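Incident review: delayed structure delivery

Summary: a single-chain prediction request sat in the queue longer than the usual turnaround. Root cause was a stuck worker, restarted by the on-call engineer. No data loss occurred. The affected request and its eventual output are reproduced below so the record is complete for anyone auditing the incident later.

Affected input:
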Amino acid sequence: MANDNMSLEEEPEIIYIPDDEGNEEEFEVIMKFEVDGSDSLYMMVVPMDSEDEETDEVYAFRYVEDGDDLQLYMIDNDEEWAIVEETFNTLVAELDDGE
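Output delivered after worker restart:
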């Protein structure tokens, strides 16, 4: 029975982000959202090659999609980061309550 539920799950969205040396690393998009009162879009990603899912580091980016083109921007403003982190934590809590 559990296998029936697993087949209904969506395929994970995978993106490739170049590291400092130009090597592309594979990440799974775990969440996309818009912050209230902002036109900015954000995505949270985790590395695909992580060996311990319990300690996965989550990375946040502001992004712009133009057709198939995806542009990622680092969040380097402390105020923006605090808003994104609070929104992410709220959305995760809502998902946990729904289960």
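Verification: The chain has two helices and five strands.
Action items: add queue-age alerting; document worker restart procedure.
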